Amino acid sequence: MGAAPLVAFLLVVCLAVLLYLLHGAGDPDDTTDVYVAGRSLRPVRNALALTGDYISVITLLSVTGLVALAAHDGMAMAVSGVAALGVLLLLAQPLRNVGRFTLGDTWSERFPGTRARVAGTVATLCFCLPLMVVQLVVAGAAVSFLLGLSDLGAAAQLCTALIGGIMICASSLNGMRGNSILQAIKTIVLLLAMAVLAGQVLDKFGWSPNLLLDAAGRGATGSAAGDETGPLHHGGASGTLSQLSAQITVVLGAGVAPHILMRLKASEQADSARRTVKYAIGLVTVFSGLAVLVGLGASALVGAQGISAADPEGLAAVPLLALQLAADGSSGGAILALTVSMIFLTSLTVVASLTLSSAASLAHDIYAPTVGRKRSMTSEIWAMRWSSGAVGALAVVLAVALQGKSVGFLSYFAVGAAAAAIFPALVLGLFWPGYTRTGMLWSVYGGLACCVVLQLFGPAVSGTPDSILPGVDFAWFPLETTGLVSIPVGFLLGWAASRASAASPPTRLGHRQFERQALTGNSGL
């Protein structure tokens, strides 16, 4: 392996650190500027940043891997990712208008008090921390593999610690404004790298999609591409039911992630938020099309067996394809350098956004209403920076400890938690006058508890050769993702608890004011 990929990687690292430090140093001690960039981001710039927030390393590697191993499943998952932003588009205007910064702000606007803010913080951490760990583990392994470092285990841990260390500095010293600039750069690099990989794949087959599809079918299993059961479909459940659960979970969970909701609040106006999401849908659609081409190319040029041997979930499809293209062409160093930079930037920026969202929730929803009540705004920002360091350090330690182990179930849990706890509470809170504080708490905590139980007793933890505990079997829930059951549970608990707690007339009056604010940005008070 040549030195070019390593040199390019180090240059990208240095550039990322420089950009973060420069823009972090310029952030004033104002919570609105630090958390939501002063609500000043225009739609195009914010759409680039939103796309960067939305496309994580798991999205990048899992969609391409699913296409490579089971084309139809992968294409369906790519469509689900775009559909999730369609759900966000429907909620963009009220979510931009209600609440200042965090998820806890949004809920406390309807139900004032600390309990709504604590629930928002719990839901935010349950989504962000597991996803941060997965991002760091996968990115560390992929970067060390592509750089051709010896002793992959130690190298992966080193890369994980490096990415995590930069992320801690970025989120501690930076705010939404600086993060938005690097997210936009990440989106451009990501789309450029994916376009180069897709172009190289098509060039191998004379720019003929039919030849590519035929080769992908042969590389998959020797039969038609997509006929083989994908990695989400083991564990005893029918393939159709498992795929349906995964798609519902992604569609209803990915679009309401806490860091995505914070991004919406950085828009200038409610109509700017809607345009931001519309532009982001276009960018994610382009990415999804490129991901399908890259996944088919991996199946055709590397083969499903080779990809499965490296990683049963298909996460190695992009690195293996990049190595194959590098070995076959004269521009191999450039391809590897671009791929390494893409994976590194994708991990760094998304983890930094997740850390910022977690730290903002801890500082704004827990510290400020209690300890920081009589302190200045500066103290809240310092609390946010210390929280960034603490959450980031915890994620790095967990990621280094879990390097080399299967952590895919953490991403399933994170998205499932958003779909079962955050989505029902947002929808019912925005649109149902009879929703009460008790109902909101039951939606959030009941949905989270349902996700934990079903995930713990599902095939990701035990019962299959690919489980975390392959030698034991206490799984009774057959699906990898929990959304098919946990999302209805979140809605049902919220409805039942609200009916049981019998909202009083002042609560309904409060909802009318809340609804006016959600639609117009003005509570009328």
Question: Would you mind describing this structure in some detail?
Answer:
With 525 residues, the chain is an all-alpha fold. Helix content is 76%, strand content 0%. The chain is built from 21 helices and no strands. The protein has helices spanning 4-25, 31-36, 43-54, 57-69, 71-97, 103-110, 114-146, 152-173, 176-204, 209-220, 239-253, 258-264, 270-301, 304-310, 317-328, 332-367, 377-402, 408-431, 437-456, 483-501, 505-520. α9 (176-204) packs antiparallel against α16. The protein is globular and about 65 Å long. Residues 222-229 and 233-237 have low confidence and may be disordered.
List its traits.
mainly alpha, 525 residues, 21 helices
Question: What's the short story on this structure?
Answer:
With 525 residues, the protein is an all-alpha fold. The protein has 21 helices and no strands.
